Structures are given as structure tokens and as C-alpha cells.
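Q: I'm writing up a methods section and want to include an example of the input and output format. Could you take the sequence below and give the corresponding predicted C-alpha cells, formatted cleanly so I can copy it straight into the document?
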Amino acid sequence: MSENDSQVVRVSLDELESTESAPASFTVASPAAGPKSYGSIHEPAEPIIAAQEKGNFFLNAWVYLGIAGLCGALAGWGTAERGFADDAGRRWGNIWMMPLMVALMCVGFGLADSVVERSTRKAAIRIGIALPLGVVFGFVFDLFANIFYNIGLGLVVSAGAQTFRNPAFWVARSLAWAVFGAAGGVVYGIIGQSGKKTGYGAFGGAIGAAVGGLIFDPISFATHGGAPSRAIGFGLLGLTTGIAIGLVESALKDRWLYVTSGPLAGKQFILYKPETSMGSQQSCDIYLFKDPEILPDHAVLVQKAGRIQLQARGAVYIAGQRVHSTRILESGSIVQVGRYSFRYQEKLRQ
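A: Here is the clean output for your methods example:
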């Protein structure tokens, strides 16, 4: 045994206590960030939950439908005004003005939804439906509106009203114009392929047009009649009709998806149909554009026994968890499809 081996190492009690209380000088390295790897198989990364974005004001239905109604009514007025004459009998402008306004308002309503959804295919289809239906409905409802107006005038005169400055005459016009608004709402619902939407559209259109009719005569007095009064009055007819359709539809909805993030943040999709498709093809009810990860037919929402069932065909996440086949949606559920996030809502039942 060597001299060094025979030396005894002595550790005092104080040194031992100081060694036990000293902090460890080594650290444990944390795993590298990223997906875990087991050979060549990788776990899919968790989806990034998109933050809620501020909704675009112009994606509110009552806003873009109001603008569409205003533009459609003014286009109809501007076209027919050239052939219109006060107290000039049955000139073509006098015959076509109201039906043409109804027709172009209907085109505007159908086109507005398509513009918001960025779907040229839907725009072409909806214009093809709205224009002929609007013309037919315009003439039919014009006939009924004139009947209502003449009945109203008779009642007002029999009640003792003498001039058109009497508000009773304004009410008679208001009720007649409500018929035109109902026509626009009916065509709007037919374009949307929903009986419930047709009813809401007719109700909202009648309310909006009645408001426009009520203020038409005061506007005429202020502008001293003629083309300016018709332009302002008919423009307000289209504006109030579109706004009312959007507000009534929103107020009476039962189930809907509100877009919280993505290119359509701020828009709501009301679920009218038994099945509502979602995907990257323009024929889908909810067209999701500008995202290569979204399949042409990505998912479908099915109404069953008063509930909404989501059937996923591509990657869909609810509250961050992947839906592999189907899932029943609860009110308040956050649904993520690619770069789009939706909040599903149901009206509270009493």
C-alpha cells in the first residue's frame, strides 16, 4: 500500500453540516420545445386558439342589408324617373317605378350576403333568382298596395281628413308601402332557401317599409315635391326595409354561429336549415375562404331533436380538443376551423 493510500481523510462535524446545507450546483435540462418525438412518429401539436378579434361593423346584417336596400331603391328610382311624370297618366316610368325598386332591392339583398361572404358563385345564383322574382312580386304587390292605399284613402276621407298634411293620409301610405317591404323580405327568404327566413324577412320588410311610407309625405312637403322628394323617400324606403329585415332576423333567431376571429370576424350565421355545410367550396352554406387547411366539405352542422350536432370531416376543434367524428354543441362552445373561430349560441328557453 502506498503512502498516499494510507492517508486518512478526516472531515469535521462543522464541515459536514455546511456540506449538507449547501444548495445543489447542478440543474436538470428541460426538454426542448416542439412536438415530442418517438422514433419517426410525432404527436400533433395542439391548435393555437385564436384570440377574439373586434368584429367589423359592416358585417352586421342590418348594416349591409340597409345599404343594399338603399342602393337598390335608388337604382330603381333613377332608372324609372326618366320616364316618370307627375299627373301625366300611365307613362312607363309611372308603371315601372315601384316594381323596379322592389326588384332591385331584392337583388341588393341577395348580392349583399354574397359580397360579405366573398362568393362570386353565390352572387350570380342569387341575382338570377332575385331579379325575375323581384319583378313578378313587384307588380303583384304593387296591385295589392294600390288596393290597400285606395281603401285607406277612402277611410281617411270619410273620417273628415281634407289635405295630405293630415297625418291620417301618411298612415294610409305607410300601410300600403308595407306591402312593398314584405315583397322584398319574401324574396330575401326565398333566396336563403328557408321558410323561417322568408317569414322573418316579410315581417321585417313590412315594418321597415311602413316607417319609410310614414315619413314620405313630410319629406315631400319639405322638398316641395318632384324628383328630389321621390329620391329621398324611396331611398329611405330601401334603407329602412333592409335595416328592419336584419334587425328582425337577428332578434328572432334561435341558433347561430358568431365569427370571433378570421376574415369574417363580426358576422353571424343563423342556422335555419336542417343541415348547414362548412368548407372552402363556394357552394357551402358557410364559405370559409383564404385557408388552404380547410377542406372543400370540411364539416356539417345537423339539427337533431332540438340540438346541433357537428360532424367533422376535417380538423375541427372545440375548446381546443380535436373532434374526431361528431360532437353535440352547447351554447357558448368555441369552434375552431383553420384560421376561423366561431362561438355557437342558442336562445335561452323559458
